[in-house]
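TASK: fixed-backbone design
INPUT:
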């Protein structure tokens, strides 16, 4: 009886793994439909996010820090996107945990292959700048500004892994500033996708 239950459990696990593989394959296929370079053309959108400031201290400085930054953007012309992003920061530290946030408008400019060496055929360098408000628990809102370079490596025509090095500054009550390295995914929806939905 227990062997029969064990076999059922193993088959159930295999079925779950097959479902995950099938879903992942379909997702990659769906995201890769499009025209080459359409992802950075006027009228396209980008949706995604990143993880930054991921750190963990050891010993007496036992502090864990992470920032999540979802973003949505729209290409107002080829290689130029504007949009909004929200940064949510959590810091676990001895005593009391800390929470921070910022809400920013941002702009991005993607360099073309003829403007800047792309390193890899599927990659593009970009600059990002943002401004808005930010704060932390127990601290009044302040003016937040951030800017820096990034690199997007396209896994498919519409999905990119990105690295972004940003200067982040919040000015006002409880001012803070520093550099952060963010890594994340962006999905680029070409303009043609919206035409096909109509």
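OUTPUT:
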């Amino acid at each position: 009886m227990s062997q029969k239950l064990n076999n059922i459990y193993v088959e159930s696990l295999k079925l779950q793994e097959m479902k995950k593989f099938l879903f992942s394959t379909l997702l990659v296929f769906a995201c890769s439909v499009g025209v080459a370079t359409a992802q950075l053309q006027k009228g396209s959108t980008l949706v995604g996010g990143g993880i930054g400031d991921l750190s963990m201290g050891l010993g007496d400085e036992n502090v864990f820090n992470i920032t999540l930054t979802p973003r949505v953007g729209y290409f107002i012309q080829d290689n130029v996107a504007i949009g909004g992003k929200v940064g949510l920061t959590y810091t676990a530290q001895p005593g009391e945990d800390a929470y921070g946030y910022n809400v920013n408008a941002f702009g991005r400019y993607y360099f073309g292959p003829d403007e800047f060496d792309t390193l890899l055929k599927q990659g593009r360098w970009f600059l990002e700048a943002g401004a808005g408000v930010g704060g932390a628990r127990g601290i009044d809102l302040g003016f937040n500004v951030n800017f820096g370079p990034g690199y997007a490596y396209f896994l498919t025509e519409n999905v990119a892994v990105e690295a972004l090095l940003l200067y982040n500054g919040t000015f006002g009550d409880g001012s803070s500033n520093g550099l952060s390295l963010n890594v994340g995914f962006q999905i680029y929806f070409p303009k043609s996708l919206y035409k096909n939905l109509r």
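COMMENT: Confidence is low (pLDDT under 50) at residues 21-36.
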